[in-house]
């Protein structure tokens, strides 16, 4: 297998204080403003995790994955699984933007009358491929889908987005072992590597490095990339491995686009957001 690095610190360099060099364009800001609409409607949400995911989902839905909003259960669609379910606002934003459901529904986030809960639910939200939130399950589901597609001789691809804190779960590595053993070249794992868990820095909670070498040893074709650089993400995610599963380690910033929240563990989740705080979030994104 091989390890490729694109626009991120090289081998043996410290990645714990990673700073993206990508400039947020108008679309990335607009998508973040839609995320704030959901936060405003629900008065709560995982802000940090949502903002680190935006470009990953933007590239998947804008350029890479084959999906049909008018037919969410189309058998030949690519499957996109958000394993770190608490980052669901980013997924909801792209699904709404693409027409899986009305954009106005975002304001019902976490309301009793809404389908848009604090974690995505398969069968309730059009376009959601798996009910996730109990961390560590998404890659196992993705491996099963990829293996099923191979058995049925179907050509669709499976993308699984996991969090870096989620990699503490042993089930992730059991699934990785299975994916590598079966050489599932119709499976791409994307790690949202924002270096923060809910209560602290990844190196302080449970060191993951050398992360690329770990996935390489499990039989993955590994790439590292700036997770906010749309062009680099598009280039990597549009290509596929011919020999086995791919792992794309996307170096991101928790809270990206909200200057005062970037890299701050206390912005992992907020509840009872007052109007003044919502206005502050919108202003920060507008200035990003």
The sequence of SSEs as H and E is EHEHEHHEHEEEHHEHEEH
Provide a count of the helices: 9
Please give the alpha-carbon distance between the first and last residues.
38 Å
Major sheet strand order: 1-8-9-5-4-3
Characterize the biggest β-sheet: 6 strands, parallel
Structural class: alpha/beta
Domain tally: 1
Task: Report the helical percentage.
Answer: 25-40%
The CATH homologous superfamily is named: Thiamin diphosphate (ThDP)-binding fold, Pyr/PP domains
Number of strands: 10
CATH class: Alpha Beta
- The best one-word shape is globular
Assign the CATH architecture.
3-Layer(aba) Sandwich
**What is the third-level CATH name, the topology?**
Rossmann fold
Radius of gyration: 18 Å
Q: Beta-strand level of the residues, as a percent range? A: 5-15%
Low-confidence stretches: none
Averaged pLDDT: 93
């Amino acid at each position: 297998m091989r390890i490729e690095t694109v626009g991120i610190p090289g081998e043996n360099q410290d990645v714990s204080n990673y700073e993206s060099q990508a400039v947020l364009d108008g679309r990335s800001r607009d998508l973040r403003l839609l995320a704030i609409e959901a936060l405003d409607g629900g008065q709560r949400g995982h802000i940090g995790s949502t903002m680190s995911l935006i470009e990953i989902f933007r590239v998947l839905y804008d350029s890479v994955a084959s999906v049909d909003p008018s037919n969410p259960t189309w058998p030949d669609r690519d499957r996109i699984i958000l394993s770190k379910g608490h980052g669901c606002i980013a997924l909801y934003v792209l699904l709404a933007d693409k027409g899986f459901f009305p954009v106005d529904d975002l304001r019902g986030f976490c309301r009793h009358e809404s389908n848009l809960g604090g974690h995505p639910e398969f069968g309730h939200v059009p376009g959601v491929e798996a009910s996730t939130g109990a961390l560590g399950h998404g890659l196992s589901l993705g491996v099963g889908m990829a293996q099923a597609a191979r058995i049925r001789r179907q050509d669709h691809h499976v993308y699984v987005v996991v969090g870096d804190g989620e990699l503490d779960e042993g089930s992730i590595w059991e699934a990785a072992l299975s994916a590598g053993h079966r050489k599932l070249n119709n499976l791409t794992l994307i790690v949202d590597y924002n270096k923060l868990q809910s209560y602290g820095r990844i190196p302080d909670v449970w060191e993951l490095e050398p992360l690329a070498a770990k996935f390489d040893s499990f039989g993955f074709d590994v790439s590292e990339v700036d997770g906010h650089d749309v062009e680099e993400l598009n280039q990597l995610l549009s290509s596929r491995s011919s020999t086995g599963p791919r792992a794309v380690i996307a170096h991101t910033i928790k809270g990206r686009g909200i200057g005062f929240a970037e890299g701050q563990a206390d912005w992992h989740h907020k509840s009872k957001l007052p109007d003044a705080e919502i206005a502050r979030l919108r202003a920060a994104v507008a200035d990003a």
